[in-house]
Design brief:
This protein has 11 helices and 5 strands; from the N terminus they run E-H-E-H-E-H-E-H-E-H-H-H-H-H-H-H. By secondary structure, it is of the alpha/beta class. The protein folds into 2 domains: 124 residues, Response regulator (Rossmann fold), CATH 3.40.50; 71 residues, Arc Repressor Mutant, subunit A (Orthogonal Bundle). Strands 2-1-3-4-5 form a 5-stranded parallel sheet, with helices on both faces. Helix 2 runs parallel beside helix 3. The longest helix is centred in the C-terminal third of the chain and has 15 residues. 36% of the residues are buried. The mean pLDDT is 85. InterPro entries: CheY-like_superfamily, NreC/VraR/RcsB-like_REC, Sig_transdc_resp-reg_C-effctor, Sig_transdc_resp-reg_receiver, Tscrpt_reg_LuxR_C, WalR-like. This is Response regulator transcription factor. Keywords: DNA-binding, Phosphoprotein, Transcription, Transcription regulation.
Length: 217
């Protein structure tokens, strides 16, 4: 099955480079392009999109607002944000509204394809070191109200779901969680799906942030 991609960047040269890189890759189709967040929303409304490569800093509507709007849609595409700076405030905010991963704009071509395939497989495209740095930025700025709200959310989880959530907060893969908690990968996936629903989050990074806010990871 071919995944339909949307390229969003206000620089036509960046879009052209990404199209050349991804267009000939088996299983990936560059279905549309957009020069800003508002155009990205329009392209996604016109035809189904599986994954968006989203620049963060753009005129008219930036990548953060566009990501938030897309993730609030009934059929939300996966979103990988593109950035020049590693683990900056824009990335933190984009992940907080539901982005599934991020790539530096100078990422080698093969790693861009790997990241896209990772996210399409339902996993975040974030290195453990970057995840730790992002979570630290968010947690360092938390207040008592956020801590209380996070703990109330976690209380909705069963004991087993909480164990899985703690593993997610450490950045463990489905296979690693299954090995540690003696569960099959399909069972792990089922627990993760319920965790996302109960905590009202869109990805693993948001689970990790919430668990850290609650003081449980």
């Amino acid at each position: 099955m071919t995944a339909r991609l949307l390229l969003v960047d206000d620089d036509p040269l960046v879009r052209s480079g990404l199209r050349l890189l991804l267009g000939g890759h088996r299983g990936l189709e560059v279905a549309a392009e957009a020069a800003n967040g508002r155009e990205a929303l329009e392209r996604c409304a016109e035809a189904p999109i599986d994954l968006v490569l989203m620049d963060l800093r753009m005129p008219v509507m930036d990548g953060i607002d566009a990501t938030a709007a897309l993730k609030g849609a009934e059929r939300a595409p996966a979103v990988i944000v593109l950035t020049t700076f590693d683990a900056d405030d824009y990335v933190v905010r984009a992940l907080a509204v539901g982005a599934d991963g991020f790539l530096l704009k100078d990422t080698p071509p093969e790693q861009i394809v790997d990241a896209i395939e990772t996210v399409l497989d339902g996993r975040p495209a974030l290195s453990p070191s970057v995840t730790a740095a992002l979570i630290k930025q968010v947690v360092d700025g938390r207040d008592s109200d956020r801590t209380t709200a996070a703990r109330r959310s976690v209380e909705t989880l069963t004991a087993r779901e909480r164990e899985v959530a703690v593993c997610l907060a450490r950045g463990a893969s489905n296979a690693e969680i299954g090995g540690e908690l003696y569960m099959s990968v399909p069972t792990v996936k089922a627990h993760i799906s319920r965790i996302f629903t109960k905590l009202d989050v869109a990805n693993r990074v948001q689970v990790a942030i919430l668990m850290h806010d609650a003081g449980l990871a």
